[in-house]
Amino acid sequence: MKRNKPKYKQIIDAAVVVIAENGYHQAQVSKIAKQAGVADGTIYLYFKNKEDILISLFREKMGQFVERIEEGIAGKQKAAEKLLVLIEYHCRHLSGNHHLAIVTQLELRQSNKDIRLKINKVLKGYLELIDKILINGVETKEFSEDLNIRLARQMIFGTLDEMGTTWVMNDQKYDLIVQAPAIHRLLLNAVGGKY
Amino acid sequence: MKRNKPKYKQIIDAAVVVIAENGYHQAQVSKIAKQAGVADGTIYLYFKNKEDILISLFREKMGQFVERIEEGIAGKQKAAEKLLVLIEYHCRHLSGNHHLAIVTQLELRQSNKDIRLKINKVLKGYLELIDKILINGVETKEFSEDLNIRLARQMIFGTLDEMGTTWVMNDQKYDLIVQAPAIHRLLLNAVGGKY
Amino acid sequence: MKRNKPKYKQIIDAAVVVIAENGYHQAQVSKIAKQAGVADGTIYLYFKNKEDILISLFREKMGQFVERIEEGIAGKQKAAEKLLVLIEYHCRHLSGNHHLAIVTQLELRQSNKDIRLKINKVLKGYLELIDKILINGVETKEFSEDLNIRLARQMIFGTLDEMGTTWVMNDQKYDLIVQAPAIHRLLLNAVGGKY
Amino acid sequence: MKRNKPKYKQIIDAAVVVIAENGYHQAQVSKIAKQAGVADGTIYLYFKNKEDILISLFREKMGQFVERIEEGIAGKQKAAEKLLVLIEYHCRHLSGNHHLAIVTQLELRQSNKDIRLKINKVLKGYLELIDKILINGVETKEFSEDLNIRLARQMIFGTLDEMGTTWVMNDQKYDLIVQAPAIHRLLLNAVGGKY
DNA sequence: GATGAATGAGTATTCATTCAT
DNA sequence: GATGAATGAATACTCATTCAT
Fold it and tell me: Which stretches hold the DNA-binding feature (chains A, B, C, D) (predicted)?
């Protein structure tokens, strides 16, 4: 299994750095190889093509992210608390990965439709996580019983995404994590929750 | 003034069609010229470069959009009503411009950071409009008095944007306009408004 | 019609020189462009891709060759004379086009199967010319009446081709044209003709 | 001596299969190694480089072929009979080695000039065999006394080669061996022989 | 002897922009 | 103003060969 070999992760991490520092269109394979400390050809022992690097990058990083949230949520009873965990982790995830934040919020969005479609499939895991919290909240009557799950999910994801993108576009110069409670209050209000 | 000459608008409209039908990365200047019925070189009599076409496109179309919302809002008293107008116009704007919806929600996002930064400047007008409604709502005590305007604005814009993008990605196959009231309720809840 | 524009022929002639002097695998498009005195990109205004240059080259040059033989044959009555014209023109064609001889006898044969198949289609015109002479000779009873046309054609073409290739491989250092009568006698014997 | 070790022949046979089934340009060393059941690096214990595999392949197979013809000829008195043996063996050789026929008649010709020159050296043994038959025929006055040996050899080889190539290009779908007598008659006529 | 992971040189093609007419 | 032929920079990927184990 290639994905567990050290060079696999090494190349992905190199790609994050190179894309963040040079921009999507200036992230040549040779640059990534150099940053990873391997030959150009070695890249192709671990990835089918350049596109595969980008999608794998997103899958690996987003996968870890979703897993960690799931663990964090597991300890919480109330849907409102789960939502807070999600928001906090989202903020911390962006804050704690300077380069990755740039790559996922800005650079990777320049990729072509094919890549974006595949990235969307990976994102689905995150969206389903949000759905689970919402459905749970409705079932326990914490949230409005007539809540439109899809719209609420779009609101939550859209808000967090817009927040993240704005923050990255402003060069990450303010503190994202301290805003988590305020975001939580807004979104909780929206879905009819109380705190 | 080039902007008022017929070919200026002709080229912009051609760009919308070409980008929507071919995708951002397949929207070559020569294709746009052909669609506009002019020679390649003529484009450069009206636009500095390709980037200038895209930004001008966004400026023209978004400008009209903001103007129309401002007119719609003018007739409303309550902030909650203004917010509803904004949401409805947003949905109608997307629904009524098949090609433009694809271009602004999907294709133009693949442009590089430079263009996206300039697009963001154009968007500022829309964001300020949202801010105005929010500030008005806080002042009239319709909305929570401790509302974080910036976060609330990011939530509103992020929600509408995410909603629009999802809708376009799903080939615009469901009705966006009928969802406006539900969105309105969610967002109004969030900011502490009542209806 | 691109094929009549001067640059079309200019590029083809440049390709002949570059391939002859550098070998098939060292004949980069940029070298051909330089030799033709045009920019790399200009090549693609006249040819679909590199393969198209090679096939067009073969088509143009072989087309002229076959035409000239047809003219030469037209003036002859006897099939034996026609065969002599064909052989003489074949020898003269190779002798008089130093570079082209190298390209068609050696270099172009290194091309991949796709290109070779398309080249074969062009060659068909030449093979049909041989067939016509043979059929004519059989009908006029100059040649054996039980002559196997296909085999005889393979013999004539195979002999001329082998002769040409050997000559080019030996750096064209002996006179090909003086051998035409001897070749003619051999092949005429073969098909049962007299002289 | 490496040439007598089993892996030497194993690799050559693998090369024949791989080249025949994949084409010259798709016959990577790694594919040959896989087909031979050895590691890539092992190839280089038996062959200097890829070129060496191809030339060795040709030398081994052509060597066996020439030996067998020499044996067949040994039993014949007349030059005309010897020529018939050569033609029959040539046809049988191609007919009986499906893969090898493809490799020698089509694929190996795509190799570069260097390899083709070395292959020609190997072919020399075959051409000398033809020469011997021709000289013998002239000396016994079976053939024309003013026969140009070189041209006659080029005719015989060129004819057989063209016949073989055409047959392979047509997917070997007709019977080659039954044509031997007709070819024999043509070539015998050419050199002035009687039957 | 045998392995196979790692290497790194090399090239066709696209397309925004220009400028002579 | 309008044209469109010409420009030329820039980059992913393959595969023969090596060498540490």
Answer: 28-47
Whether the CB-CB separation of D174 and D167 falls below 8 Å is answered with yes
Token code pair at residue B48: 């500095």
Q: Tokens 């006659």 identify what position?
A: D152
Long-range contacts, stretch A44-51, CB < 8 angstroms, 24+ apart: A45/A2, A45/A7, A46/A2, A46/A5, A46/A7, A46/A8, A46/A11, A47/A11, A51/A111, A51/A114, A51/A115
For residue A194, give the H/E element and its range.
Answer: none
| Contact between C162 and D166 using a beta-carbon 8 Å cutoff | no
Q: Which architecture characterizes domain A51-190 according to CATH?
A: Orthogonal Bundle (1.10)
| Cα–Cα dist C127/C164, whole Å | 16
Alpha-carbon distance B126 to B67, whole Å?
9
Specify the CATH superfamily of domain D58-190: Tetracycline Repressor, domain 2 (1.10.357.10)
CATH, domain D1-47, list 1.10.10.60, 3.10.20.340, 1.50.10.10, 1.10.10.10: 1.10.10.60
Please state whether strand E lies within 7 Å of residue C41 at its CB atom: yes
Q: Which D positions 149-168 lie with beta carbon below 8 A of chain C?
A: 151-152, 154-155, 157-163, 166
Helices C50-74, C113-139: inter-axial angle, 10-degree rounding: 10
Q: How many CB atoms lie within 10 A of CB A28?
A: 13
Mean pLDDT confidence for D72-76:
93
The per-residue pLDDT for range D91-150, each reduced to its tens digit, is 999 999 999 999 999 999 888 888 998 999 999 999 999 999 999 999 999 999 999 999
Chain D positions touching C186 (Cβ under 8 A) are 148, 151-152, 155, 190-191
CATH topology of domain B52-190: Tetracycline Repressor; domain 2 (1.10.357)
Interatomic separation, CA of residue D53 and C1' of nucleotide E2, rounded (Å): 19
In this structure, the number of other CB atoms found within 10 A of the CB of residue C114 comes to 10
Nearest-angstrom CA–CA distance, B22 and C57: 34
Task: Determine whether the interchain pair A155/B155 forms a contact, defined as Cβ–Cβ distance below 8 Å.
Answer: yes
Nearest CA among C139, C137, C140 for reference residue C191: C137
Contacts of A163 in chain B (CB under 8 A): 151, 154-155, 158
- Write out which nucleotides of chain F lie closer than 7 A to a protein Cβ: 1-20
Cβ contact C75 with chain F strand, < 7 A? no
Contact between C163 and D158 using a beta-carbon 8 Å cutoff: yes
Q: In chain B, what are the domain boundaries?
A: 1-47, 52-190
| CATH classification code of C54-190 | 1.10.357.10
Tokens of B61: 């179309």
